[in-house]
From TrEMBL:
Its EC number is 3.1.3.5. It catalyses: a ribonucleoside 5'-phosphate + H2O = a ribonucleoside + phosphate. It comes from Haloterrigena turkmenica (strain ATCC 51198 / DSM 5511 / JCM 9101 / NCIMB 13204 / VKM B-1734 / 4k) (Halococcus turkmenicus). This is 5'-nucleotidase SurE. SUPFAM superfamilies: SurE-like. It is found in: Cytoplasm. InterPro entries: SurE, SurE-like_Pase/nucleotidase, SurE-like_sf. Keywords: Cytoplasm, Hydrolase, Metal-binding, Nucleotide-binding.
């Protein structure tokens, strides 16, 4: 009989969020779940890292007074058994598009795990803008049924299927649960970017206008992208790599070769 899966669970909404409790309950049926999550909401903190953090014992697990990246490092290196997989989520709100990948604390937790060579899944739930601001929506455990179902499926099957031989982590975005299970689509992150800023006296308001055009009939994102899949009611799974890669660049190589001639001789 094989050993049970060891799962490290974290998020960026905080250890008291409904989404992490929903995933904890679901994943506990698959293996041993160690929760190491921020003590407070750390949304959109990216891969911010602290030098030292306080840790509290909570009913669900460890509450770290720091960022999701802090949680992953602390969990992998000190607080828990070394896991087979790291799961981040479920985030209340989608993490869609290339420009979000470096901003999201949920995604950043998965990226941090990837640098430890631990497979990771980041799961987020899309809430349609017409439901109102996320801060004003009261989400219940049953709203996360789609998220818990597909995350459990991937945790249980992706390792053996060799998914992580070619991907460092999976960025999973799911629709709000609504009746029958949604189909799953392998996607790529949308390249669409619509950040804007408006000045009002001594303040500048930063606006993410991408959320203003989420009507399936007018959505500009092409087929195969994460945004189109989720807006049209499908689960989006984007297999992604974390370590920064480089490509051979002839133009840059030529500049490097010419550099010494440009700046002249140097004294040593």
């Amino acid at each position: 009989m094989s050993d049970p899966l060891e799962i490290l669970l974290t998020n960026d909404d905080g250890i008291d969020s409904t989404g992490i409790r929903a995933l904890y309950d679901a994943l506990s049926e698959l293996g041993n779940v160690t929760v190491v999550a921020p003590a407070t909401d750390q949304s959109a903190c990216g891969r911010s890292m602290s030098h030292e953090v306080d840790v509290d014992d909570r009913e669900l697990g460890y509450a770290v007074h720091g960022t999701p990246s802090d949680c992953v490092v602390a969990g992998l290196a000190e607080l828990g058994p070394f896991p087979d997989i790291v799961v981040a989520g479920c985030n209340e709100g989608a993490n869609l598009g290339e420009y979000v990948l470096g901003r999201s604390g949920t995604i950043s937790a998965a990226v941090e795990a990837a640098f430890f060579d631990v497979p990771a899944i980041a799961t987020s739930m899309y809430v349609p803008p017409e439901r109102g601001p996320l801060s004003e929506i009261d989400l219940h455990p049953e709203d996360f049924a789609e998220a818990t179902r597909v995350t459990s499926y991937l945790v249980e099957n992706a390792l053996e299927a060799g998914v992580f031989d070619h991907a460092a982590y999976l960025n999973v975005n799911v629709p709000l649960a609504d009746g029958d299970p949604a189909p799953l689509e392998v996607t790529r992150p949308s390249k669409r970017y619509e950040m804007d800023a408006e000045r009002d006296g001594g303040r500048v308001h930063l606006k993410d206008r991408v959320w203003e055009r989420m009507d399936p009939e007018t959505l500009p994102d092409p087929d195969g992208t994460d945004r189109r899949a989720v807006v049209e009611g499908r689960i989006s799974v984007s297999p992604l790599t974390a370590p920064h890669s480089t490509n051979r660049h002839e133009g840059l190589s030529a500049l490097a070769d010419a550099y010494s001639e440009t700046v002249g001789p140097t004294e040593r």
